[in-house]
Specification:
The chain is an all-alpha fold and 77 residues long. The chain has one domain (11-71). The protein has helices at residues 11-22, 29-55, 60-71. It is elongated and about 50 Å long. The protein starts with 10 loop residues before the first helix and ends in a 6-residue tail after the last helix.
């Protein structure tokens, strides 16, 4: 389900969005706005998670695991 929302944007942002569409990087204005809002939502969630982790007590088991994982090579072929 979706809802139509009307917003006013500065001319330079509209020109930027229209340029993305003209260059074939986006199919519509709605796509660009939706993509930008989804990125902002992910950023907000990541910032919240980082704040939670910053307040958490250190986990020595996870620290040891991270150190071990960073010391081994990964063969991706």
């Amino acid at each position: 389900m979706s809802k139509q929302v009307a917003v006013r944007l500065p001319d330079e942002l509209v020109a930027f969005v229209d340029g993305l569409i003209a260059d074939g990087d986006a199919p519509s204005r709605a796509f660009v706005v939706t993509r930008a809002l989804e990125r902002e939502r992910r950023r907000a969630v990541a910032a919240r998670d980082a704040e939670i982790l910053a307040r958490a007590e250190p986990d020595t088991d996870m620290d040891a695991l991270a150190e071990h994982a960073s010391s081994i090579g990964i063969d991706l072929e």
